[in-house]
Amino acid sequence: MKTTWIIAKRELKSFFDSLIAYILLIVFLGLSGFFTWLFGSDVFFIGQATLSPFFSIAYWTLFFFIPALTMKMLAEEKRSGTIELLLTKSVTDWQVVTGKFLACLILIAIALVLTLPYYFTVWGIGPVDHGAVLTGYFGMLLMSMTFISIGLFASSITNNQIVAFLLSLFVGVFFLIIFDILANNFTGYLGGLFNYLSLSYHYDSVSRGVIDTRNIFYFLSITFFGLFLAESVLSKRNIVE
């Protein structure tokens, strides 16, 4: 765990040294604040003390931001050759993958924490459903974990950051949109299967306050599977070389 944390701190430092973290935080806060308070179905348009406008825009913002964050984490290191130096040390492939995963998750958590003033402001406007807010943030973290693992897998199979970004989006679209569409067009076993595979279905359940073990298992299993695939790609590469 100590080695994983060292790698995570190294990645976090690289985020802030290269301005990636600052850009992500500023754009994320800017977009979420704009659509929460000023445009579209904002808080004042709805006329309720709710953070649903924020969660709606953050849902899609993170869908694009996380692949942009993960696209370089393994692809760039493979392209530049720094992955060779890292893996020659007493570090396992799993520690490298989980360390990078943890760094991304911490950065996303920081971004979400910085939106807490939205929560307190809405609370000051009127009575707010605190449980829905807490489960909304919890759902955001679970969804982020899933997208980060997918992004790391995409980054592990290519040396090109743009390819990693597009591949991560492509896979994410299936979980976020395609499976949901298929679930609505099939019945019976297939309909149930596609519905279970739909990330939207599980995220909506959690954000509504339904903390079901099936939803938690869904997010954790996809996260682990994505990290496992990324680690397998690195291990296979080491065997080939």
Q: How many individual domains?
A: 1
Secondary structure tally: strands: 0
Radius of gyration from the CA trace? 19 Å
- Give the integer mean of the pLDDT values: 84
What does this structure look like?
- The protein has 241 residues and is mainly α.
- It has 13 helices and no strands.
- It has one domain (2-240).
- α7 runs antiparallel to α9 (130-156).
- The protein is globular.
Task: Summarize the topology.
Blueprint: H1 2-17, H2 20-37, H3 43-46, H4 52-70, H5 75-80, H6 82-88, H7 93-113, H8 116-125, H9 130-156, H10 161-185, H11 188-197, H12 199-207, H13 213-240
Helix pairs in contact: 1-7, 2-4, 4-9, 4-10, 7-9, 7-13, 9-10, 9-12, 9-13, 10-11, 12-13
Descriptive tags:
mainly alpha, 0% strand
Short description:
The protein is an all-alpha fold. It is built from 13 helices and no strands.
